[in-house]
Amino acid sequence: MNIFKKTIFSVLLSLLVIGNVNADKIRIGTEGAYPPWNSKNEAGKLIGFEVELAYTLCRYIGQQCVIVEQDWDGMIPALIMRKFDAIMAGMSITAERQKAISFSQGYADEVASLAVMKGSSLEGLDTSAGINLTKPNAAAKKDLKTLTAALAGKTVCVQTATIHQNFLDSGDVGKVNVRTYKTQDEVNLDLASGRCDAALAAAVAFSDYAEKSGKPVVLTGPTFSGGAFGNGVGVGIRKDDTELLKKFNAAINKARKNGDISRIATKWFGFDASM
To answer: pLDDT tens for residues 58-69?
Structure first.
């Protein structure tokens, strides 16, 4: 009986020690498949703008970071189920997502764009350089009509459960054949192979793919922001973790003031996408 009690005590003590160790760490979920926001190198190590920024923010908070890999379509459920404490995965701040989780202030702007293969009939669409859909002006409304006519009957590929899919499903550019994929890598591959007439994602995701693969992928039409595309990219946090939210907001302010976000964004994107 004494041996049994000692065993139980040892197990409880071990769990307490583990709990105390993890209490000093912030577990951050990321996809690892959305370069240059987050990806993996040849050795399988998680890298990218958000991975480097996560370590920087944790340093300002004064706690250690642990980066946890998570499939995109299970990202918010995994956060709620406490698989990790925060999300940094190119996740735009939208009203729909804010029903389930909280967000920090935005740290970067994920400007979206359509992409096609060079020589496509959709290349060089006659539109503005960029449109904001929060309060679309006359020029933006004209561009949406141009896109509606151009994309009619076309197949547009997107990653599932993204703002890009939401936009195409909204009807703002008419009825489009939307083909969804689990990862952005799959979108890129099917665009390059001709299974998609066009694809929609963050503009930098296509630029990164074109540069690394050598494929003649080009952007077309306007860049998109606002509306269905949200209000920048932020750290996703459970609604009850109000103290952690305050810590991330304070850390983002410090990182912005010291130029860290601008520096890291320029390193990974080739330009300053910080907010």
So the answer is: 999 999 999 999
